[in-house]
Amino acid sequence: MNITLEQIYSATRSLLRIVLPATVFIILCIGIFVAFLACLQLIPASQRPPVTFSIYCLGFLILFIVLEVAFIFFEVRFLRKQFGHKELPTQRFVVFLSGIPFYTVEILFILTFVYSNNPNIPAAALFVSAVGSLGFFILSCVYFFLTWFLLKRSTTIALQQ
Prior knowledge:
Mean pLDDT: 77
Number of strands: 0
Oligomer: single chain
Structural class: mainly alpha
Largest sheet: none
Radius of gyration: 20 Å
Keywords: Membrane, Transmembrane, Transmembrane helix
Helix content: over 70%
Distance between the termini: 40 Å
Shape: globular
Number of domains: 1
Low-confidence stretches: none
């Protein structure tokens, strides 16, 4: 069986179509996080609450949760439109492939935490890498299982009708 150049281009386009929304979502979240830190620095020190996890951080966390749920529903709609006519194992494989950016960022955080033997690394950097790896692990699991469930639900609803 010969693999043509057109098949390679088609597979590459499909993979980019699957992975690109999650990559854009991660870049958007990083941009929002940087903007949040910049806005937090604009608040005078006298008006900042003394507690580290303040109302600002709680609001920021709620914003990220809302964005994640909205992204998952968008991604399920996109995957259903593109791959809804395929068999269920193919849909599950596509869900796994579409989560590759989340898995990659999680692995980067884990590697940062594991290979931090240098004693000059601040404790805050280790804390951020540990919390980041845990956060992206939770995000990856929620994305994978919720997308899988919503695609499975759409298939069973389509079969019942």
